[in-house]
């Protein structure tokens, strides 16, 4: 029998509590006998060992995971989640030496469950935000969290199918480059809607200017009727024609992902929390590049 939504949430929270309390021997109980994280296969025991011996030390050993958002699709036994932590690097990270300052790490992803246990996760972190903090530890930095934005009062909430349909139509419009004329059809305040702390339309326009043939595919989508929020895992493909976000022009297409959560209000997008995994694309152009940020 499939696990209930509350049971899936309990699995995620149980895993984070084990990490926070350093109960490494209890970690395997939350993981299915076959577990895949970002394409790497683990057994419950090997994953717990990997976390204890490699991930935790890179994050300073005292990392505490905090819940930001969880959206569950009971039918597909899948959950979208956002977590954050504050840590003090003790070893070189992304090419920077440790400087004794706290760093905020925000991780977003999707998890699939088998028999109520984690069987697959696809995770991403905002490496560019981490680089900014490492480069200038004295600069003020506050992560933009989903949980800090109250759910707006919605008079007529939409059912899950309609929420998902809005995002699917929005992506179709983007791929057909109709957003130049249809953007206001999908976005509540076209010139003010934010993706994190940046105007969403500016991100879209700048990215398309650098990658004109950019196409987006929805890999996974989950909608929550209560909050009227939609979580999506997007896959991008395109060929850069000018340098942008650390990408170079070499005539080759790159692929990268975005994990994003959309607040829907009155049938339109009101707010976006998302980031593109530019490191994924950069790695394709420079395979011998820096090691990635460790995933929680």
From TrEMBL:
List, alphabetically, the SUPFAM superfamilies matched.
NTF2-like
InterPro entries recorded for this chain? Cyclase_SnoaL-like (IPR009959), NTF2-like_dom_sf (IPR032710)
Provide one Gene Ontology biological process annotation.
Answer: polyketide metabolic process
- Which parts of the chain are coiled coil? none
The name this protein carries in UniProt is SnoaL-like polyketide cyclase
Q: Which organism is it from?
A: Daldinia eschscholtzii
